[in-house]
Amino acid sequence: MLHLSRHHGLIPSLIIASTAALATIAIAGLQTEPQDGTASTAASPLLLGDDERWLVLAREAQELRTNLAADMTPDEIDEALRDLRAKTDIYLEDHPDDYRAWNLIVNLSGQLQDDEGVDDAVANLRRIQPDNIQVGLMWVVHYSQTNATKSLAICDLLLEEKPTSLMYHNAWIVTQRTVDPAGVPARFKTLADNPETLDQAIAFGRAVQQSDAWEAVPMGLRLAELAPDNPAAVEVAGRAYRFSNQFDKGREILSTLSDEQLATPQLAYLYSDCHYADHHFDEAYEIMSAIDLDAIENEGLANRLRFMLPLRAQARTAWAEEQAIQTEQAKTENLPRVRLTINGEPVEVELFAKEAPNTVAAFLALARRGDFDNTPFGQVQTGFRSIGGTIPGRVPYTLPGEFKREDARDFFSGTLAMYLPRAGDPDSAHCEWCIYHFPAPHLNGERTVFGRVVSGLEDVRAMREGQSTLDRVEIIRDADPELAGYNPDPNVIDTAGRTRPFSEVMAESDARAANTNGTPTSP
């Protein structure tokens, strides 16, 4: 069958029209504006053709997309693609400025791996829609896997036209990394060392930050050094620090800007985030609440801030309550504690046996078995959370949710909470759990919070996607279950939907594994 995902996932940070979505593009082409919302220029009005004839082509494209999932042979697929392209060519003879048809030609030619056809269609799209960045991105993506050198040359051509385009810089960066990653910092140095290309260096650093905040940190610092009074330059450093979880350094670099510069909505939001992450909730709220939301032209940013501001206000009150609870519980020392060793670094965690007794008991039971040891973190969503407890094959049960309890704890930086695979099913948690890098009050009452990081949060925040392992979990304070308020043999929901003791369900699972493999899967 045709490899539909020829370009799929190559540039995930870009919003592109992939060749796998040819029918979507065809039908979206019935709109009267470019897909990315780019307004047409007065000199190049968008001329649409015969909608009735076009609809026939769009429907045929939809049918072809559906049929591609069937058992068509490669020859049959090739013939169908060529037939549809020939019909589209005939349509374009009468309507040469219909961008919808040229969009379809680009995608059909891409599926056929016809470079000349792609180039010709792109040239026509660029003639019709000179300001549509998506057209250039389609062109880059077509060559990115088969001819990276040409793909980079196309990026350079596009950047000559739009030298500060984040999307084009991003396309160049992602493509260059497939050829030689060292070319990325080298390109930045060339741009930064030339005063005439400082704006390009800023755009380039911002694009790097969007895909790899850690790599962008030294670039941001260099920009801040070169142009300390330029808020755009300092912002690159601030964003690189914020999105690599180095919030204290983000606050420090942003504080070098003037009050007037920090009052701009984007910088104020960023500065507020860097305070909020480290539980400086009063400062975070004051910074964000000073923004004049009605004066913001970017509607998306304004809506985001309107969503965030009440949560920042809520966090101020919730944090005071959380601190009072921690102070009171510290007097008893009845709460269990564990040490997570992550990438060789110790992270100490206190477990909330009073507020999430069943969840804590299940976590401790798996820790005693050693099931968490030497398991990868399934996901590291920098600036949000890391998902651990990814036991191979998971476990033969789910856990009842405990997040609707009146004493349920809230989400802050360092919170441990159960991962819920199905948000609509409160009892769908199993063995996976999350450590939060950043407060998440929008999840209060939605997930079971069962612990908090006492020390080592900086090591949690230093985790990288695909590079982080939970080496082991050690119980360092196994509190008396009766005093701590939990049953050491928790209730779980087995695969048949029955509520049963953990020990019973796991004993059956181990027995089945022993019969299948000759030895138990867990100690």
User: What is the distance, rounded to the nearest whole angstrom, between the alpha carbons of the first and last residues?
Assistant: 45 Å
Tally the helices: 21
> Which oligomeric state applies?
single chain
Give helix % range.
40-55%
Shape: globular
Question: How would you describe this protein?
Answer:
The chain has 523 residues and is α+β, with helices and mostly antiparallel strands. The chain is 51% helix and 11% strand. It is built from 21 helices and 12 strands. The strands form 2 sheets. A 9-stranded antiparallel beta sheet has the order 3-10-1-2-9-7-8-5-4. It has a 3-stranded antiparallel beta sheet with strand order 6-11-12. A hairpin with a 2-residue loop joins β1 and β2. α3 packs antiparallel against α4, α9 runs antiparallel to α10 and α10 packs antiparallel against α11. The longest helix is centred in the middle third of the chain and has 31 residues. It is globular. The two termini are 45 Å apart. The N terminus is likely disordered.
